Automatic annotation (TrEMBL):
<dbReference type="GO" id="GO:0005789">
    <property type="term" value="C:endoplasmic reticulum membrane"/>
</dbReference>
<keyword id="KW-0496">Mitochondrion</keyword>
<dbReference type="GO" id="GO:0004364">
    <property type="term" value="F:glutathione transferase activity"/>
</dbReference>
<keyword id="KW-1133">Transmembrane helix</keyword>
<keyword id="KW-0007">Acetylation</keyword>
<protein>
    <recommendedName>
        <fullName>Microsomal glutathione S-transferase 1</fullName>
        <ecNumber>2.5.1.18</ecNumber>
    </recommendedName>
</protein>
<dbReference type="GO" id="GO:0005741">
    <property type="term" value="C:mitochondrial outer membrane"/>
</dbReference>
<keyword id="KW-0256">Endoplasmic reticulum</keyword>
<keyword id="KW-0812">Transmembrane</keyword>
<keyword id="KW-0472">Membrane</keyword>
<feature type="transmembrane region" description="Helical">
    <location>
        <begin position="20"/>
        <end position="41"/>
    </location>
</feature>
<keyword id="KW-1000">Mitochondrion outer membrane</keyword>
<keyword id="KW-0808">Transferase</keyword>
<dbReference type="InterPro" id="IPR001129">
    <property type="entry name" value="Membr-assoc_MAPEG"/>
</dbReference>
<comment type="subunit">
    <text>Homotrimer; The trimer binds only one molecule of glutathione.</text>
</comment>
<dbReference type="InterPro" id="IPR023352">
    <property type="entry name" value="MAPEG-like_dom_sf"/>
</dbReference>
<dbReference type="Pfam" id="PF01124">
    <property type="entry name" value="MAPEG"/>
</dbReference>
Length: 159
């Protein structure tokens, strides 16, 4: 049913939608894990932004030294923010794309490349890998989202 919009009652039987749901769940879980990684780095580096978070390290002036920034924590936070800037658009555009009737093989290629690029981007941020690995992985994922958006707009304009 190439080029046809999927009906909501058919979504569960739609292989493209199931693929979308699978890869979306993977990248959303990866993004959620970044919160845990941030918490781990905050605790192990003793670098907090809220005074109440320092209570277990002392009170008053002795706890204030833990209200600080740390380069490792900030690196993880930047990676997480980059996820928010890229995965959220993928979720919305990917849904519209999945509903636009793409070929399964093409949809899988889009979803897999995006997912792989975001996972590589995270490793490039956290390890850190030398540039241009992080920049290239970002660009690949971003390009996939634009490719899907183009297909959605092309399909919608032809209706």
């Amino acid at each position: 049913r190439k080029g046809e919009m999927a009906k909501s009652t058919q979504l569960i039987d739609n292989e493209v939608f199931r693929a979308y749901a699978t890869y979306t769940a993977i990248v959303l879980l990866k993004m959620m894990l970044m919160s845990l990684v941030t918490a781990y780095f905050r605790i192990t580096r003793k670098a907090f932004v809220n005074p109440e978070d320092t209570a277990s390290f002392g009170k008053g002036e002795s706890a204030k030294k833990y209200l600080r920034t740390d380069p490792d924590v900030e690196r993880v936070r930047r990676g997480h923010l980059n996820d928010l800037e890229n995965i959220v658009p993928f979720v919305g555009i990917g849904l519209l794309y999945a509903l636009s009737g793409p070929e399964l093989s093409t949809a899988l290629l889009h979803f897999r490349i995006f997912t792989g690029a975001r996972i590589l981007h995270t490793f490039a941020y956290l390890i850190p890998l030398p540039q241009p690995s992080r920049g290239l992985s970002w660009a690949v994922g971003y390009s996939v989202t634009f490719s899907m958006a183009y297909k959605v707009l092309k399909t919608a304009w032809l209706l």
